[in-house]
Design brief:
alpha+beta; Aminopeptidase; 4 helices; 30% strand; binds coenzyme A
């Protein structure tokens, strides 16, 4: 049976192994990782999926970030990963929807995610049209996706994404 639960500290190693498998260990070179180093993740917004053996087959994590000179507190959603054997079965969609729903519930106003718009659009993510929000290089601006968790929460939010 598939089980969805919070990620605990004991899951850390298995989650890192899953992320290495899905993204390869070069993932640490991605600019989004520079925003995560030494910043605690938001435990209430980190979920895992376990299969019937208790193996971790899916994960979503969220980190805090700040945007622009006004240091607007926001979420960096991801990484999101599903073990290759279990991809395409709806687990990723469940994790993303759960994360969005809980983030709204906790009062988070906005989130950024680096990914493919074709996959994330159905969840409410969109590409910014004037690149008012800058992400640390070398990220392709087309992959910088935004989602409003509260209405109009990106209005007037501009600048570079910084570490929390
Ligand atoms: C991306 C990922 C998390 C999606 O999880 P998943 O469990 O395989 O996806 P789901 O089964 O929930 O798919 C949800 C929908 O997205 C579609 N989809 C899946 N991957 C897609 C892609 N790369 N591009 C466009 N659509 C995609 C599915 O067809 C499905 O559509 P449907 O509901 O209309 O049938 C997973 O495939 C994965 O780990 N991929 C490699 C790592 C990655 O790219 N992570 C995201 C970057 S942070």
């Amino acid at each position: 049976m598939i089980q969805f639960t919070y990620e605990s500290e004991n899951d850390e190693e298995a989650v890192e192994n899953l992320l290495d498998l899905v993204f390869s260990p070069t993932r640490f070179n991605l600019s989004s990782y520079s925003l995560r180093i030494k910043v605690p993740k938001i435990r209430t917004l980190c979920y895992i999926v376990k299969n019937s053996n208790g193996s971790i087959i899916g994960v979503i994590r969220n980190w805090p970030i700040l945007i622009g000179d006004r240091k607007k507190l926001s979420l960096l959603m991801g990484p999101i990963a599903v073990h290759p054997t279990f991809q395409g079965e709806g687990l990723g969609a469940y994790l993303i929807n759960k994360s969005i729903k809980e983030a709204k519930k906790y009062g988070w106003e906005r989130a950024i995610l680096i990914g493919d718009i074709n996959y994330y659009k159905p969840f409410g993510f969109y590409q910014q049209n004037k690149n008012k929000i800058g992400f640390p290089p070398p990220t392709d601006p087309k992959r910088v996706l935004l989602i409003e968790l509260q209405k109009n929460s990106f209005k007037g939010v501009t600048g570079i994404v910084q570490k929390f």
